[in-house]
Structure formats: C-alpha cells, structure tokens
Design goal:
Blueprint lengths: L7 E6 L2 H11 L3 E6 L2 E6 L3 E7 L8 E6 L3 H10 L4 E2 L8 E2 L2 E4 L2 E7 L5 E6 L1
Parallel strand pairs: 1-4, 5-10
Antiparallel strand pairs: 2-3, 3-4, 6-9, 7-8, 8-9, 9-10
Length: about 120
C-alpha cells in the first residue's frame, strides 16, 4: 500500500490564466501557488488539483470528481455561474436535473474550459 497523505489530481490545460480563473472563481478552489507551467489549488482540507500547461489533449472519461454533501445545491450554484452540465439519456447513466443515480451515490458531470470532464459525487 502506498503511504501517501493525499492524492493530487493533475489536469492538462492550454491556458493557465483561464483555467486558474475557472477553478478558483467558478469552482471555488483555493489558489495555492503557480509556476510558468502549472497552478496548484486546494479543495477541501487536504485534496489538491494541479493544472499543468500542455497542448490540447482529448479525453473521453472523468479526470477528477469532487465529493460534495449536497449535489443539488452545487449543481444550482455552478449553473448560476454558467457551468453547463453533461446530460445522459441512454446507457448505464441517465440524468434527471443533471444528476444520475449510481447505486447508493449520485453524480453529475461538466467540462472545464479545456474540455476536461469533471464530476460531482454525493454518497
């Protein structure tokens, strides 16, 4: 077993200033520091997100998700800030009000300005 004290999600972005504004101002993460090629933000008590400047990368899967206590409230808040959620109508995921039931948990998905898919999850 790895004896790490935290895991840091590292996400590729093409524009650090735009990404920093989205993650800090829209998602509400706390800015920690930046270098010419990266930005680090804190989420919650110990989790962190690292944004790393890279050429355009296409992904089809969720790169990180945020555990939230009230998914409906977070969806409403982010929608009010202009975040567009991904809705699913077929397959294993079907969303209602942007939220899917995943066994005992619920989830919702959206993209950052670079097209990275991010999720919300409420257990």
């Amino acid at each position: 077993m790895i004896g790490a004290t935290m895991v840091v999600a590292t996400l590729p972005v093409t524009d650090l200033d735009r990404a920093k504004a989205f993650y800090a101002d829209v998602l509400g993460l706390t800015f920690l520091w930046e270098t010419p090629v990266g930005v680090r933000l804190r989420c919650g008590d110990v989790s962190e997100v690292s944004l790393f400047k890279r050429p355009t990368v296409t992904t089809e899967h969720t790169l990180a998700h945020f555990e939230v206590p009230d998914i409906e409230a977070v969806v409403r808040d982010l929608e009010a800030k202009g975040v567009q959620f991904i809705d699913y109508t077929e397959g294993p995921l079907t969303t209602t009000g942007h939220i899917a039931q995943l066994g005992p948990a619920r989830g919702a998905w959206f993209r950052d300005p670079d097209g990275n898919t991010l999720g919300l999850r409420q257990a």
